[in-house]
Write a structure and sequence with these properties.
By secondary structure, the chain is α/β, with parallel strands linked by helices. Helix content is about 40%, strand content about 10%. It has one domain (about 40-60, about 70-300). It has helices at about 10-25, 75-80, 90-95, 125-140, 145-160, 180-185, 195-205, 210-220, 240-255, 290-300, and strands at about 55, 110-115, 175-180, 225-230, 260-265, 280-285. Strands 1-6-2-5-4-3 form a six-stranded mixed beta sheet.
């Protein structure tokens, strides 16, 4: 798909400015929950590895002895889903069996995921890096990028080569919402909905005016990835119900725009009560690394 073909010139500026800002903001990994206390920033493109998952919680690593290659991790599954058309009409064809696709659980609504893992296990980094890949794919051929942005894209491309990953085949505008921040904005009445919150994020980071009507047309016009990070950080005793209700309302807003929308939510297992219902979301659980995978992943890390 061409760069937002047919869109108004100012719309191009909003998209480019927002993606460049977010690409730089998410350039470095957030390692505080993994016990990393150094003030030195760690580029995510030097660090990210795809992580294995299972359909149910487990304390046992997968058996990967004797296999010629490691099995693809969750990011590959997410990118494969993102390469499909996920608008309501296409999903309807999937559900009625009129469109063939190999799916792990064909009864589930395709394109909605919940990734569950413990603190420091990497769930936030997976969502962060998925957004980076989609941003880089869109910005790659844009002229007049900041040198910092161009360097960040080059770093992502180099890491993808080493990880045998490709930039996403299906391009998606990506946005990551930290649910605890959104919950606070709801609680203090700064915003009243996720639509308003996302509109405000884009307006703030692009330094351009943006209305909910434009957001609705945007959803209709171009595929999206929405990452909802850290439901566990929103205490169940606070306004978690309001957060989930706002998410559902946003999905309805997107559906009314016939949006091609890929959704990834993350949470720790502790305190998670399937607020993102397994009837509508595919749940994946991060597993411990096998000894073989840990040795392979740890090999490039220089000794201090």
């Amino acid at each position: 798909m061409e760069w937002f073909e047919g869109a108004e010139p100012d719309f191009h500026q909003i998209v480019s400015a927002f993606l460049e800002s977010d690409l730089l903001d998410d350039r470095y990994a957030r390692l505080d929950q993994a016990g990393h206390t150094s003030q030195e920033l760690t580029p995510m493109a030097n660090l990210f590895v795809d992580l294995p998952v299972s359909d149910s919680p487990t304390d046992e690593p997968p058996d990967e002895t004797g296999k010629p290659e490691l099995q693809p991790g969750f990011l590959r599954e997410l990118l494969d889903a993102g390469a499909q058309k996920l608008d309501p009409a296409s999903l309807s064809l999937l559900q009625t069996g009129k469109r063939r696709m190999v799916r792990v659980k064909p009864d589930l609504l395709y394109g909605r995921y919940v990734l569950i893992g413990g603190p420091g296990q990497g769930k936030t980094t997976v969502g962060q890096f998925a957004c980076q890949l989609y941003r880089a794919a869109i910005l790659l051929d844009r002229p007049n990028l900041l040198p910092e942005v161009r360097d960040a894209i080059t770093g992502i491309q180099q890491h993808c080569t080493s990880e045998k990953l490709d930039l996403p085949r299906g391009r998606r505008f990506s946005i990551r919402v930290v649910l605890n921040d959104f919950a606070k904005a709801l609680a203090d009445s700064t915003v009243t909905s996720l639509v308003e919150y996302i509109t405000g994020i884009i307006r703030e980071r692009s330094h351009r005016e943006l209305s909910s009507d434009v957001l609705h047309r945007w959803l209709r016009f171009y595929p999206w990835l929405l990452v909802l990070d850290g439901l566990d950080e929103v205490p169940a005793s606070s306004n978690r119900d309001a957060v989930i209700r706002s998410v559902t309302q946003f999905l309805g807003f997107a559906n009314s725009a016939d949006a091609d929308l890929l959704v990834l939510a993350t949470s720790r297992p502790q305190g998670y009560n399937s607020e993102f219902s397994p009837d509508y979301y595919t749940h994946r659980y991060l597993t411990p690394l096998s000894v073989r995978r840990a040795l392979i992943y740890g090999a490039p890390i220089p000794k201090v």
